[in-house]
Design a protein that fits this description.
Bound molecules: 2'-deoxycytidine-5'-triphosphate, magnesium ion
Main location: cytoplasm
Subunit structure: Monomer.
Number of helices: 16
Family: Belongs to the DNA polymerase type-Y family.
Strand content: 15-25%
Protein name: DNA polymerase IV
Strand order of the largest sheet: 5-6-1-7-8
Cofactor: Mg(2+)
Largest sheet: 5 strands, mixed
Amino acid sequence: MPVSVPHVRGLSPWRCESRELTVARAILPRSLMEAARVILHVDMDAFFASVEMRDDPRLQGRPVLVGGAGRRGVVAAASYEARKFGCRSAQPMVHALRLCPEAVVVAPRHATYVEVSRQVFDIFERFSPLVEGLSIDEAFLDVSGSERLLGTPRQIADAVRKAVREETALTCSVGIASVKFLAKIASGMNKPDGVTEIPAGKELEFLTPLPVGALWGAGPKTEERLAQRGIRTVGDLRRLGPSTLTSWFGAQGAHLYRLSEGIDERAVIPDREAKSISNEDTYAHDVVGVEALKRCLLSQATRVADRLVAEGLRARCVHLKIRDGRFVTETRQCTLPEAVDDHRAIYGAACRLLESVETEGRSFRLTGVGVAALEEASAPVQLGLFDAVGSRGRAPGGAAAAPLRKDSLQAVLSAVRERFGHQALFPGAAGSERRGGATGAISHTRGAPPAEQAENPGPDGPRKPGRRGDGGEGHR
Ligand code: DCP
Ligand code: MG
């Protein structure tokens, strides 16, 4: 039997683990830390709708649609009773009501969902220090090595579900696997209120019959191109081998091949370690073509680098977020060999990440560049070009705003922009995509960084709110 986990935060046996070990478990390759990881992906069932049904007994057992009731209203969540009629998230409400005229439409209560989300995440954190939120109602939990304390992976999953049910009167579904993307696929296989386990060693068996679209990063276009060649399942795709896939799809092909082999090296990065800085723009007109996209990335990488310098930080992890005209959002991330605060390094990484995105035939409404795995920039950086500037700690022109580090070209460039506006000393190629309508917000977040290396959301993915429950669009 699994040992029950203490409820008092701070007294959990997990808290005894040293910070170093926690971080090491999060960032070191699996081979160095432990033989097989055990990752749970927990996703609340019909989250908004279930909260409404819990809080209003009259709704129980009835088809419920949470969302805007007006002519242009959209379904945010559909209860499982409503799904039997074909109702889904992201459908126009009028369409959903045509499918199920007797459905009850309920206006969303976001503050309540955020509160329940907090409660649920507090429960998750009692089971592991490594909890990475993906959106308001789902998270990865790395419970590797906790068998002795908490029981088998299946028992841990059941204990999480029991705690959620008892403390919130809601149900969730859990996927168990050795890697993140498989755990996420698994949690969706037995919904609602179910558990799906992919035991270590059974990954290929599980993946082989799945449609290629199940792999994160295989968008509709890729799926179509593969289908034209008779490749429909993950097994078909694996048989092609890495070189054929790379020759067809470049870096994206190599990425898909690795997933088809069940390889996904990404660690569960706990939210508190995942402070990130990012900059994203939504464009008034969709951006088409790699060159135009790169100009957007250069602009964003520059603004992120400025922010890093202003805060005296460097970053080891770069992520790219991109959303197409159909609201399909994809994210990619990579780890650099050393921490950087230089816009060229961040831009270069973002461009490499872009190579693994299917850009052909798509137009994009949003791009974003972000950094995570931040460290203090205490050591001087390599460039000595501005040694002669002399005014250590002060920007040219006397600005004393950012904590400038000597010898840093990026620091000087950033300080000039800080003082004279963002267009000053802006990389030439970056300007032209910065058009009216772009939001250009720098966000500085704790929790829910782009956790997915690649994603392939269903029709309801793109609008799913982020962890902070601000109605924003979460990462899937
Ligand atoms: N959401 C939204 N708009 C979308 C998709 C989701 O506002 N297009 C909100 C409402 C959902 C919540 O996010 O309840 C969680 O999204 P999920 O994709 O996890 O969907 P549900 O929890 O509703 O159902 P499931 O049981 O399939 O997880
Ligand atoms: Mg859910």
